[in-house]
# Entry
Amino acid sequence: MPHAKTPEAMFRLDEKRVFITGGGGGIGRAAALMFAAFGAHVVVLDRDAAAAEAVCREVANAGGAASAFALDVTDEAAVLAVFAQAERVAGGLDVLINNAGISIRRPSTELALEDWNRVVSVNLTGLFLCSRTAARSWIGRGAPGAVINTASIMSYSGGGLHPNISYQTTKAGVVNLTRTLAVEWAGNGIRVNAVAPTWVRTPLIEPLMADAGQMNTIRSLTPLGRLAEPEEVASAMIFLAGPASAMTTGHVLAVDGGYLAR
Ligand SMILES: NC(=O)c1ccc[n+]([C@@H]2O[C@H](COP(=O)([O-])OP(=O)(O)OC[C@H]3O[C@@H](n4cnc5c(N)ncnc54)[C@H](O)[C@@H]3O)[C@@H](O)[C@H]2O)c1
# Structure
């Protein structure tokens, strides 16, 4: 049993190597800074190399340890090569945060197949590729591991603010991918959980934040009456990554201000 010695140690991540996809922006950036503050060596992975480097510098300036790599999670060969290289640089891999995600908001009748495929490849296939690569490494070494996926309140909802079929569908898929891998890999000591955020103040929802009417609707749909901040999602990830959640797997933790409780 991975019992920590003190209550505080239940949340510490000292010497853990934490890979964060989409770590160059929004929730991923907040997670990188918070995981580093809890003692982890953070590996920032993003298709935007400059953004990944910038977050890496922010972590270092705050006194943390980080490395940055350019990675498009939809590129199988790149996932294999970059994970291998990043494991060499960081000295291993303990926690994978599948956070990269995109949204293409269009009415279903106007959504091009290439846009549908793009969202599926980032939001779903990317999670599969990165999780499979991490699990091969853990199982090959007989090492424990933890995966944290980024689902959404839209995993459980048909939406309503704007048409977004590929996002709602793929985020629903993330929930059952989480449960399925949790069951399959539990015997290998690998835990797989997810967070399901409400609307979070990041570039992903800039068009919504620019629309006062939409913001009022969001507030009225959310019992706590506001957007989430990226750090509020990152802190849920901290719980799911460490000893505090050692008996938790296959779970989706809503960070939603009560949206799903209504
Ligand atoms: N912001 C929200 O309201 C909200 C709500 C629920 C869930 N989420 C989910 O949280 C996650 C992070 O979203 P965010 O709001 O921080 O978005 P964001 O757009 O601010 O950041 C996403 C990051 O992922 C990177 N990225 C995109 N495609 C990639 C790819 N193929 N390979 C590697 N990196 C890639 C981007 O470069 C960017 O740095 C996503 O999975 C998103 O669906 C966001």
